[in-house]
Write a structure and sequence with these properties.
The structure is a single chain. This protein has one domain: Rossmann fold. The chain is 43% helix and 15% strand. It contains eleven helices and eight strands. The radius of gyration is 18 Å and the shape is globular. The protein starts with 5 loop residues before the first strand and ends with a helix. It binds adenosine-5'-diphosphate and magnesium ion. This is Sporulation initiation inhibitor protein Soj. Dimerizes in the presence of ATP but not ADP; ATP-binding is required for double-stranded (ds)DNA-binding. Interacts with DnaA.
């Protein structure tokens, strides 16, 4: 029996919470564990595309917007179409600013919430994991990501109280689950840019775990703040190549293990239910 890819949307409508950095490093982390990984840049700003080493996304012939356009026009997508290969063993479906126009166009489209899901239909049988790097809004592109995903991974910056923004995101996820995608789970909340040296940072970590930890998984592993992580965005390399022995690489390695562990647990559970 062929296994279908697990699709994880990395989502938070707030900018700068570490979504793109997490996509890149979790993706490469999973590939280092032998998994076939596709990352999808679902943000017109194309930060993931740029940070993976394609600095001029607007010069790419085929991007996510091209493929969404094909779905809207009922044209077939060829296997592997538009997909770029990164030297660290992961694949990328890139974005460009054209995706912004696509989002506007979706408003009047039929099945407008499921266009990304259709784009990914072929890839589901080719990859073990598909990671969706979401744009910082709760607009149509993010709804498309949540409609296509098995789970949502939510990076939360440890410096700010997430309070209202996180509530709104969780409400959106519930709504998508009720109306579009009943199997959507929450993979977990990931504390990013943590700073264990300050009391404030520690307090926020504790507060989030107290407020949400009973209902939602909060990853044991947070991602520490380090200039090393910020440097990778300009390099086209993951933290595993840029600073393999540093604390951020170590943290993303541990996060990768947590994600793999819960995927394995779910798979076993599904098999048990089939017996
Ligand atoms: P988002 O995709 O949510 O907007 P990014 O991943 O682009 O967030 O991160 C926002 C900024 O913070 C970027 O400049 C990135 O390089 C930097 N950054 C990400 N993770 C870390 C970290 N662990 N420590 C320090 N800087 C980080
Ligand atoms: Mg981003």
């Amino acid at each position: 029996m062929s296994q279908k890819a697990t699709v994880i949307a990395v989502v938070n409508q707030k900018g700068g919470t570490g979504k793109t950095t997490t996509c890149e490093n979790l993706g490469v982390g999973l590939a280092m564990e032998g998994k076939k990984v596709l990352m999808v840049d679902n943000d017109p700003q194309a930060s993931l595309t740029i940070s993976m080493g394609w600095p001029k996304p607007d010069e790419l012939n085929t991007t996510l917007a091209t493929l969404m356009g094909k779905v809207l026009e009922d044209k077939p997508i060829q296997p592997g179409e538009g997909i770029l290969h990164h030297p660290e063993g992961v694949d990328l479906l890139p974005a460009s600013i054209e995706l912004a126009g696509m989002e506007v166009g979706l408003v009047n489209a039929m099945s407008r919430e499921k266009v990304l899901k259709q784009v990914l239909e072929n890839s589901k049988h080719t990859y073990d994991f598909i990671l969706l790097d979401c744009t910082p809004s709760l607009g149509m592109l993010t709804i498309n990501a949540l409609a296509a995903a098995d789970s949502a991974l939510i990076p939360v910056q440890a410096q700010y109280l997430p309070a209202k923004g996180l509530e709104q995101l969780l409400q959106t996820i519930s709504k998508v689950r009720r109306q579009i995608n009943p199997k959507l789970r929450i993979e977990g909340i990931l504390m990013t840019m943590t700073d264990s040296r300050t009391n404030f940072g520690k307090e926020i970590d504790t507060l989030v775990r107290q407020a949400y930890g009973t209902k939602i998984k909060v990853f044991d592993q947070g991602i520490p703040r380090s200039v090393r992580a910020a440097e990778t965005s300009a390099e086209g390399k993951s933290i595993f190549t840029h600073d393999p022995k540093g604390k951020v690489a170590e943290a993303y390695r541990a996060l990768t293990k947590e994600v793999l562990h819960s995927a394995e647990k779910r798979r076993k559970h599904q098999l048990d239910q089939l017996r």
